[in-house]
Every structure is written in C-alpha cells, then in structure tokens.
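quick q for whoever's on today - can somebody do inverse folding on this one?? i tried earlier but teh output was garbage lol. tokens:
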C-alpha cells in the first residue's frame, strides 16, 4: 500500500513530524523551501523516499510533536486519566519544602499549600499556564526553615486570600479553626488542628481524594522537631495519633518537607513503620528530647517574616 502524503502547517526549519507504528515510522523534515517525506524500512534498516511502499498492515497514527497548542486543549487534558482534579507537587531544593497545587478543572479554582518566597514566580507561572484562578494561598503553620510565599503572591495576585490557623499568631486574610473548610470549586479541604511542632500546626484533609497535607506534623518516616517555637513532643504525639492516624489507612499523606527524595506515604505505613511515631508515647517523648538538633539556619529570618504573612523587606 502506497504511503499517503501527510500534511502539516508547521513551517519551522528543523521541525519533524513523526508517524509511528510498532515497526515503522515516518519522518518529515520541514523547511521554508522544501519538504521530504521519508519512510523507515525495517528490512533494509534505512529511510526510503516518498515513493517507497510501507509493508506494515498496522494503521498509522499521527502526532505532531512540535505544534501542540495549550490554548486548543481542554482543561481535563491536564488532570490525568480518569481524574476530575488537578494536583501538582513542587519542590524547593534549598529548604526541601513541598508546595502543593490543587485545583478543580471545571471551575478553574485552585489553592496553593505552603508556597516558598523564592519560588513564587514558578508557582504563579504554573497557575497561569494551566488557566487556573488561585483562590487561596495556605500555610500549614508558621515556618521556621523558609519564608512563606503568601505575601508575595498577594502582591502579584491581590484577589488571592491568605489562610492560616487562628492560633498561629500570624497575619492572614482567613483564620481557620478545627473543622473549617477551605473550598475551591466542587472540592473542600478540612482543617484538623495538629499542634506539637508549633501551636498553630494543622493538617488539611482532602477527603474526596483520600489525601492529607500534614505540614511538619508527620513527615515520611519522621516528624517535625519539638524543641522550639512552642513545640511539645507529648502534644505532637497526641495530635498525630488522634487526628492523622485516625484517618483511613489508605489515605495518602503529603508532608511539608522531605530530605531523602520521597514524595508521599500513607497512614498505614506511618502507623507501623515510622521509627518515632509507631512507638509508645513515653518512648516518643524520650526520642524527641534526645535529638540534640542544630539551631534552624533560617529561623531568625523566617519567623518574623512569616508572622506577617511573608511581607517584608528582603534586602
């Protein structure tokens, strides 16, 4: 069967249109003045001219790898197969902080959890490229290891509201309490107060999707320190076991940080495998009081800034 001529509107030199099957593919090198259609002949292991006959009986499927336009795609294309939500996990390599973007692709409403000051442009560019409306910038607690990006986001996007717990002592547009709901589109995050690392720590639970964003209360095979900033090992243990570990065992837990390259864990894993929180309360307190951790590197810069929503003079 003679190979049909494939038409494309791409006119950039060096662009390629590939047509693939299991055993054959077609490549067209396109320039402003000429176009050559080549067919890969598997038997001879070389490209043949446009007049070649392709022996494969498999139907050819085409895809132009250089002319996919985001503007022509549906929002559902960004959600993943069979999903009705958008979820992105973003990393700050300096403080090993995870920032999470959640969105409803139908209403385009989105939230950011734990943004980092230095990476606000990255986050907002992602929001813009996905065509989203950032409704809330949320902090799980007053961070001591990085400056929150919430204030900078509000400067660049005044319609976005900042969110933090009422007991944190920090400035924000919205102060949450136990059981508060942070709504975006058809979804909502439920607030569980989980103090211990700090008084104002909370966990945001996305029950519809079986996810919880634990801040520093539960890390992957670890937990936040309790030796400063109103920390209490006993309080943290009670918070985790009564609130986070009481969630369904298959719920995914997304921490505020990870220092070993892991991205997610589950309630069941941490209940049985966490080397600190799987112990008795007495053993946990002993572990936490004997850590002898160094003074946080960014605390003197981060704490004052985060108490005012990250709005400060960076110079």
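ok took a stab at it. sequence:
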């Amino acid at each position: 069967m003679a190979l049909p001529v494939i038409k494309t509107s791409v006119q950039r030199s060096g662009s390629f249109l590939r047509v693939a099957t299991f055993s054959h593919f077609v490549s067209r090198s396109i320039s402003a003045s000429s176009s050559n259609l080549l067919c890969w002949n598997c038997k001879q292991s070389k490209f043949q001219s446009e007049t070649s006959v392709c022996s494969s009986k498999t139907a050819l499927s085409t895809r132009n790898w250089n002319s996919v336009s985001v503007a022509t795609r549906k929002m559902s294309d960004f959600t993943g197969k069979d999903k009705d939500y958008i979820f992105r996990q973003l990393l700050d390599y300096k403080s090993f902080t995870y920032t999470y973007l959640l969105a409803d692709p139908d209403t385009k409403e989105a939230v950011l959890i734990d943004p980092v000051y230095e990476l606000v442009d990255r986050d907002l560019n992602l929001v813009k490229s996905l065509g989203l409306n950032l409704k809330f910038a949320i902090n799980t607690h007053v961070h001591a290891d990085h400056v929150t990006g919430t204030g900078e986001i509000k400067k660049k996007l005044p319609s976005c509201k900042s969110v933090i717990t009422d007991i944190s002592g920090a400035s924000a547009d919205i102060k949450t309490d136990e059981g508060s709901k942070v709504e975006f589109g058809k979804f909502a995050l439920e607030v569980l107060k989980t103090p211990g690392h700090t008084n104002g720590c909370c966990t945001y639970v996305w029950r519809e999707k079986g996810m919880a964003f634990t801040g520093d209360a539960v890390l992957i095979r670890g937990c936040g320190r309790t030796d400063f900033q109103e920390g209490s090992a006993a309080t943290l243990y009670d918070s985790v076991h009564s609130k986070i570990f009481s969630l369904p065992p298959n719920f995914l837990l997304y921490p505020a940080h990870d220092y070993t390259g892991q991205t997610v864990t589950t309630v069941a894993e941490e209940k049985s495998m966490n080397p600190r929180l799987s112990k008795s309360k007495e053993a946990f307190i002993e572990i936490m009081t004997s850590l002898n951790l160094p003074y946080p590197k960014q605390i003197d810069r981060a704490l004052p800034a985060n108490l005012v929503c990250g709005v400060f003079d960076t110079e």
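fwiw The helical segments are 120-129, 150-156, 233-244, 267-273, 281-289, 299-307. also The CA atoms of residues 250 and 266 lie 6 Å apart. so keep that in mind when u check it
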